[in-house]
Amino acid sequence: MILIIGCNKGGAGKTTTAINLAVAIAQKGADVCLVDADPQRSAARWYAEREEAGIKPVITLVEKLDNITQTLKSLSTKFDHVIVDVAGRNSRELITGAVVADQIIAPHQCSQLDLDTLAELESQITRIRDLNPNLKVGVYHTMASTNPAVKETERREFLEFVNEFKSFEPLKSVGYYRKAYKDSVPEGKSVLETDNQLAKDEIAQLSREIF
After folding, report:
1. Cα–Cα distance between 28 and 197 in angstroms, integer?
2. What pLDDT does residue 112 have?
3. In angstroms, rounded to a whole number, what is the distance separating the alpha carbons of residues 128 and 95?
4. Rounded Cα gap, residues 206 and 173, in angstroms
5. Percent of the chain as helix, strand, coil, to the nearest 5
6. Would you state the pLDDT for residue 116?
7. 138-147: burial string, b at 16+ Cβ within 10 Å, e else
8. Rounded to an integer, what distance in angstroms lies between the CA atom of residue 133 and that of residue 4?
9. DSSP 94-150
10. What interhelical angle do 14-26 and 197-210 show, nearest 10?
11. Structure confidence by residue, pLDDT tens digits, 52-106
12. DSSP states along 10-37
């Protein structure tokens, strides 16, 4: 599977989602390639820390910018899963990757600034499906509040907004705002390799839903 983690808004947790999914399926025995297609190189820096620390399972990292179509096609013949981290904007990497991807996961916070970008993404997906009609797009609720007073209301509002866009499918999985996600990245780890059981459960559920 070629899986792109991308949307048109920065700060939505794309790299965090990508690296945690890569570790999740690698732990299941899959041969995984993580493609860093974001000029900020966040995934590449995470990978460098992981490699230096000798953390297993081992994941392959490839860096590629601009037109990534042929690179993804080639990698998909060599690996069980190719997970692509793209920049949080309408990028060339997102468009050229999407024409050969099996699925896009679009992380979004439940904020108007995040959700307003779904209209632009839907317009892009409509054109991309002329070339890749089987492309699936799931919208993943990230950085959700853990506050019991607002948790259910926020989730309901998120689903109501996403359901207005018929091109997308809201994922059942939710990623909550937890310090464990931030703390694990500088160590080259996934939250699956920490003691935070709630975060581990969230990534496990997301992995099951996608794969």
Report:
1. 18
2. 85
3. 7
4. 5
5. 45, 20, 35
6. 86
7. bbbbbbbbee
8. 16
9. HHHHHTT-SEEEEEE-SSHHHHTTHHHHHHHHHHHTTT-TT-EEEEEEEEE---TTT
10. 80
11. 999 999 999 999 999 999 999 999 999 999 999 998 677 899 999 999 999 999 9
12. TTSSHHHHHHHHHHHHHTTT--EEEEEE
Q: Which tokens go with 129?
A: 């499906």
Residue 76: what pLDDT?
98
Using the CB atoms, write b or e for 187-202: b if 16+ within 10 Å: ebbbbbbeebeebbeb
Q: What is the pLDDT of residue 114?
A: 81
Q: What angle do CA 131, 133, 136 make, to 5 degrees?
A: 120
**How far apart are the two ends of the chain, measured CA to CA in Å?**
9
Half-sphere exposure of residue 54: CA atoms within 13 angstroms, side-chain side: 0
pLDDT digits (tens, 9 = 90+) for 129-141: 999 999 999 999 9
